[in-house]
# Entry
Amino acid sequence: MLFDAGNTLVFLDYARMAQAVGAALGVPLTEADLARHIPHASQAMEQAAGSDQDRAAAYLQALFLRAGIPADRLGEVRECLAGLHRERHLWSSVGPRSAESLARLRAAKLKLGIVSNSDGRVEEALEAAGLRQYFDAVIDSALIGVEKPDPRIFQAALAALDVEPDEALYVGDLYQVDVVGARAAGIEAILLGDGVAPEADCRRAHSLEDLVNRIFSGEMLVRPVSDLST
Ligand SMILES: [Mg+2]
# Structure
């Protein structure tokens, strides 16, 4: 079972971002000011063309514009966030029951892997979030030189885990990146989250916990893990 990292297993630390950007720009900004615009920002990212960096920029721009930061101050926001990220990885929040969900999958003897468009630091982020221990392989686009939706990054994960595409399942939060990419490598994909690509032609789950619960209860049958339900 393969996973995306950002917005699937680890999430941006919105409290730290709001505190630092608010202080740097001299404006009041809270975690809630940012968090309420996450669905809108995710949509902007899903629609952005180009590289993963372009998508990340579209996400942050939409988020801070909606939170009331004027367009002519977005350069300062970017500078502030880059400094924070250099200091300590910004993708450091973990979903409420992510660790327990991953532990259930491991206890069922599944091989688990990460396929992430990242900057060479996704392993560090997973380590800091306390999730690295659950994964047999971590594939970071910056380290192998190819990013999702290119099927080669998924193939690298299959090779690392020694499994065939039709034995694998991929879980991610972006249709164009995660679902399209996994399918190009012949892997079935599940889309996480409620806001993005509402018309998507794939199966969906609200969160990792929701997905794992539905797999173990037998409500969602997926080929590599269909024998887990009792
Ligand atoms: Mg993601």
Summary: The mean pLDDT is 92.
